[in-house]
Amino acid sequence: MRNSLFPVLGVLGFAVALFSVAFLVPLTYAFVTGEPTVHAFATGFLVTFGIGVSSHILTRRFRRELQPRDGFLLVSTVWSGLPAFATIPMVLFFDDLSITDAYFEMVSALTTTGATVLSGLDDMPASINIWRHLLSWMGGMGILVLAVAILPLLGVGGSQVFKAETPGPMKDSKLTPRITETAKSLYMVYLMLSVACAISYKLAGMTWLDAFLHTGTTVSLSGFSSHDASYAYFDSAAIEMVAVVFMMIAAVNFSIHFLAWRGKSFRPYANCPEAKWFFMLMFGAVSLITVYLLAHQEYTTFSEAFRYALFNTVSVATTTGYANTDYSQWPLFAPLLMIFLSMFATAAGSTGGGIKMLRAVILFKHAIGELSRILHPRAINPVRIRGSAVSPQVIFGVLAFMLMYGMSVITITMLLIFTGLDPISALTTGISMINNLGPALGEFGPVDHYGALGDFQTWLCSFAMLLGRLEMFTILVLFTPAFWRK
For labelling, which of 59, 266, 281, 304 has a CA lying 20 to 30 Å from the CA of 233? Predict the structure, then answer.
């Protein structure tokens, strides 16, 4: 057992030490501006850095190449452990914030869920909001993807970690021959997109601080805002259009962005089955909801109905969670459709959550193939993606994922109902947490927060966010006896 766990603890210590550098960003801002959060962030940095370095040094002699099971254990412990360190400044600064709520907030940030237990965001020290939004930006592509680019320097392999962390059903495809180069390529695209988003927000009318903050939660599809009213605070169609454009870009597979940039061509988008389905789905859903809102006289003009339908539909479907109005007050069909879209609209390899469009496409084509085989039993009609046949192993994996996804949503929903939530709040909260969406309906709509949850409900939702971010199996495999056998 020692030989199995200590190498993982060594790399975990390195990841924790690396993570401690993030504390310096809000710490520097607080120090320069004289905010009262300096001590909280300084303590967080010292504790996190000290524990990370100590763990790495004490386990150095057990260093070895990571095995497949090590990757799953490392990813799960990093994603569940880093939020615990991130809570330190929150608990130290807020006297009335419990560890339970602080952990929920930090899990929500790192998993890019965007659900919050906090209110009064407009009056908080800017360094607190910087911390929340910075964590969301880091969580967007995954802190481990960055670490994978450095792991070879430590003498441990990165391939298994990358495959365990990267979302999507087809994890073996690489952009470049070396896994470290793949991680660097993804981060290059992510950084370029972030810079473009920040500049666009500034040109649209945001302050530099708001542009920095909301860039972190737009390209990561997190949905955190520094204002209680979210995008209703700005009341700007220009700012909303910037958000819509970059949310849709971030919902597409980042591998496609890289290939398009490297080839200086838009052809990779045209050849991507997910991108085609995603844009068609967004066009259809926005059009339908616009007409629906006009028919129910929620808005009097087409331009107004289109503005609110476009922004909120794209925001929810891409699992971002921004809002420029309280769409929970719309007729129930519209917000429910938006939440259901969050289950599968985003692409594999994007920063979004949910089932992923690629799985939905595979399942749809597989279902059509099964219908064909009923009529023509001898026909051979394999599922094809980008012209290549999808292996039965991938199809079985997608079917297994769908089963676990459905069981997880049902289990979380029933537990929330058992603990006192009404059915609409429980169902939409369960879907929202698993999809890393953020807002739900009922008690936890787009203008509400999750501070009303009880402790058990809060821990349950924290687990659900981690479960969704790591796509079920990465965490659930740890609960199988076979994983712990030699």
Answer: 281
Chain center to CA of 472: 13
Helix axes 179-204, 254-263, angle to 10 degrees: 90
Residue in this structure with the two tokens 């089932």, named with its chain if needed: 355
Residues 215/23/104/132 CA torsion (nearest 10 deg): -20
The 3-state DSSP class for residue 385 equals strand
User: If we measure between CA atoms, which residue out of 47, 59, 46 comes closest to residue 11?
Assistant: 59
Please provide the DSSP assignment of 182-207 as one string: HHHHHHHHHHHHHHHHHHHHHHHT--
Name the CA dihedral angle for 402, 406, 407, 408, rounded to a multiple of 10 degrees. 100
Model pLDDT, residue 62: 79
pLDDT confidence of residue 94: 96
Which pLDDT does position 162 carry in this prediction? 42
Count the neighbouring beta carbons within 10 Å of the beta carbon of residue 320.
Answer: 34
Residues paired with 388 in a beta bridge: 385
- What's the CA dihedral at 208, 212, 214, 215 to 10 degrees? 120
Tokens 């996804």, residue located = 405
**Token match 């909001």: residue?**
129
**Could you tell me how far CA 197 lies from the centroid of its own chain?**
18
First-residue to last-residue Cα distance in the chain: 9
Q: DSSP character for 439?
A: -
Return the SS3 of 384: strand
Strand-pair partners of 385: 388
112-122 average pLDDT score = 95
Contacts of 122 (CB under 8 A, 6+ apart): 226, 227, 228, 233
Distances (CA, A) of 356 to 4, 21, 82, 127, 436: 33, 32, 25, 34, 12
What does pTM read for this prediction? 0.90
Helix (H, G, I), strand (E, B), or coil: what is residue 102? Answer: helix
Identify the band that residue 143 occupies on the pLDDT scale cut at 50, 70 and 90: low
The type of residue at 480 is T
Report the C-alpha gap between 335 and 441 in whole angstroms. 8
Q: Which residue has the tokens 């470290």?
A: 180
Are 319 and 221 in contact by the 8 Å Cβ rule? The answer is yes
Locate 173 and state its tokens. Answer: 């495809």
264 conformational bin, left if phi > 0, alpha if psi -120 to 50, beta if neither: left
Using one digit for the tens of pLDDT, what is the confidence trace for 284-304?
Answer: 999 999 999 999 999 999 999
Task: Give me the residues paired with residue 389 across strands.
Answer: 384
CB neighbourhood size of 199 (10 A): 13
Alpha carbons 121 and 127: distance in angstroms, whole number: 11
